[in-house]
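Notes from hallway chat w/ T.B., transcribed later so I don't forget. T.B. wanted the structure written out for a chain they're using in a teaching module, and asked if we could keep both sequence and structure tokens in one place. Agreed to drop them here.
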Amino acid sequence: MTGDKAYSSRANREALRGKRIRATIPGPDDQIADRKRRGRRGGRPPAFDSVDYRRRNQVERGFNRRKHWRGPATRFDKLGINHQATLDLIELLDWLRAVSDGHDPRDRT
């Protein structure tokens, strides 16, 4: 599970650990500074995988780009096939925009 800094509380981490869910949640700057200030008594910092967090950010930005389209956001399409066609069109236009900007849309890292 990946999450924002807002979800880095001890209770959230313990609940995830209790369910054996690996979490990728960055620590807030104040908690990191406090841990460093306390030295050895500050404890070990929680594990953080920056590559997983970067992927989460890319997925979130992809959803945000699609939210700007009014049709799927309001779900005007009543049939599933029409809704899927709208999503496919949005994906195609997003891909064309990336190509015209000089980005390789296949590069997801």
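Follow-up for T.B.: Residues 1-48 form one domain. Might be a good example for the class.
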